[in-house]
Design goal:
The structure is a single chain. The chain is α/β, with parallel strands linked by helices and about 240 residues long. Helix content is about 45%, strand content about 20%. It has 8 helices and 6 strands, in the order βββαβββααααααα. β2 and β3 form a beta hairpin. The radius of gyration is 20 Å and the shape is globular. The termini are far apart.
Amino acid sequence: MTNFAISITFYSDEQETSDDKYGILDVKVHTKNGRIIHVEIQLWFVPEMKERSVYYQAKMVTEQLSSGQDYSEIKKIVSIIITDYTLIPENDRYHNQFRYRTKDGIEYTDLLELNTLELPKLPLETDSSQLWYWMTFIKSEDEEEIAMLEQQTPQMKKAVGILKELSEDERTRMLLEEREKARRDIASMVNGARREGMQQGMQQGINEQKITTARNAISLGLETDYIMKLTGLSRKEIDSLR
C-alpha cells in the first residue's frame, strides 16, 4: 500500500517509566482514498472493551466532518481489535466481523466495520489463510516459528526484519519485558479478585473485586484515571482507598 499516513499512539503518561508498560497500542492508518483503518492491541482484560470500541468508532466518524461539510464525505472506518483474552465468548472463531446488517443479511451501510481477533482462540494448525499466519506471528515467541513465518510473504519478511531490529535494541527489549511482566501481574490480580468475587454474593462480590483490584493497582503506582477505567470506581472511591 502506498500513499497513506500513519499515526501511532501508546496510551501512557507519555514517558518511558514504569507506567509506560500499562499502555495500549493504538494505530490509525489513513489510506489514499480516505478510508480509516484503526488497529488496537489490548493484552489484558478491559471490562468495557465493547463500549470503548463503539465510542472510538463514533468519534472517528464525527472527526471527519467540519462545519459545512456534507455527510457524503464520510469515509469508511475499519476497526481491528486484537486481544490476548476472549472478547467474544459466544463462538470459537478467532476472527469475527461486525457491520450494520439485518438478521437476514441486508446491509444498511458499509461505513462502519469492526473486526475482532482473539489470540487465545487461534488454532495450532494452520487454516492456510494469511490472517492465521499474521496472528501466529503476533502471538509467537519461538524463533524457529518466526523464521518459518518470515518465508510466507514479502510483507511478513519485512515485519520480521523490524522485529529483529527491535530485539537487538537492548533498551527496547528491557521495556518489552517489563510490559509483559506487568501484564501477567495485573492479569493474575484481576483473575484472583474475580474468582474471589464469584465465591461471594453477586453484587457484593463484584464490589469487593473492584476494591481489591483498585488497591492492587494503587500499590503498583497506577494513575487514578487508569484505575477508574479498569474498575469502574469513581475518583472519590479510589482516593478513599489510598
